[in-house]
Amino acid sequence: MRLTINITWDESIKGVTKLVNYQAQGECSSCSGSGASPKSIVTDCRACSGEGYTVSGRGFFQSKRICYNCKGEGNFLESPCIICKGKGTVYMQRKLNVKIPRGIDNGHIMRIAKKGNCSKRGHSEPGDLLITVNVEKHKQFTRDGNHLHINVPLTLTQAILGDLVTVPTGRGEIQVKVKRGTQPGSIKKVTRRGVVPEKGQGLVGHLYIHWLVPIPENITEQEIQLFSNFADDEIKPTLKMQKGRRFSIIREKLSVQIIKSIIFLRKTLLGI
């Protein structure tokens, strides 16, 4: 038998106990699962001798098949139970407290033994209950196993000059140092700040921070002039170099040029 449980992101990280209400086939109390009324006569099937299956072939090539006469029941009821109509089972409302371990991932299937449906007329014990756990998506985090990924935006000044920023994790916030000259799209790994699974369910994951550095679309006339002056002073001399080398040198110096430009711009605007 299969069920689905929906939980929040925080519940998947910390673990939770959920009360589940569901219907399952249980043993009929009127006939104790036999499917027969109290005074009914039960006769074994002659085709399978009450086994519910027939055997064909000889030696190594023997095979079993469901009995064609009794359809696998093994017997016939003279007077079926009026409650379960001879099935031996009826649908019952059940309640079950399900403990969901911390660190569980979306789509994980939990197996709970002997909490599923009973088979007809008491031929075997109840089956298992399979519960699929659906975890709602987080607005910031994405998950890869026990590792967490998050996109953190930086200003252009923060990326060039460096800073200390607050970054959320699955277990509170932490302070992360942004080094000078951080490149857009670069990734910083913070060890053991990912998902903490239950004991024996794997290792503690890491947090991977993806730095996003948007380029400003709207700048003032003063900022345009400052960047233009810097371009005249720093980039044009490099163009006088040999054709085979000038573009590679520009590419190598680009990060340094931007850092100098932002520092100059910041000092000019703030009057430092």
Write down the CATH topology of the largest domain: HSP40/DNAj peptide-binding domain
CATH architecture of the largest domain: Sandwich
Strand percentage: 25-35%
The CA-CA distance between the termini, in Å, is 71 Å
Characterise the protein shown here.
There is one protein chain. By secondary structure, the chain is α+β, with helices and mostly antiparallel strands. The chain folds into three domains: 2-27 and 91-135, HSP40/DNAj peptide-binding domain; 141-212, HSP40/DNAj peptide-binding domain, CATH 2.60.260; 221-270, no CATH class. It contains five helices and 15 strands. The chain has helices at residues 9-14, 156-161, 221-234, 236-239, 243-270, and strands spanning 2-7, 16-27, 42-44, 53-56, 63-66, 75-77, 89-100, 109-112, 129-135, 141-144, 147-153, 163-169, 172-178, 187-190, 207-212. Residues 237-244 have low confidence and may be disordered.
In short:
By secondary structure, the protein is an alpha+beta fold.
Set out the fold topology.
Elements: E1 2-7, H1 9-14, E2 16-27, E3 42-44, E4 53-56, E5 63-66, E6 75-77, E7 89-100, E8 109-112, E9 129-135, E10 141-144, E11 147-153, H2 156-161, E12 163-169, E13 172-178, E14 187-190, E15 207-212, H3 221-234, H4 236-239, H5 243-270
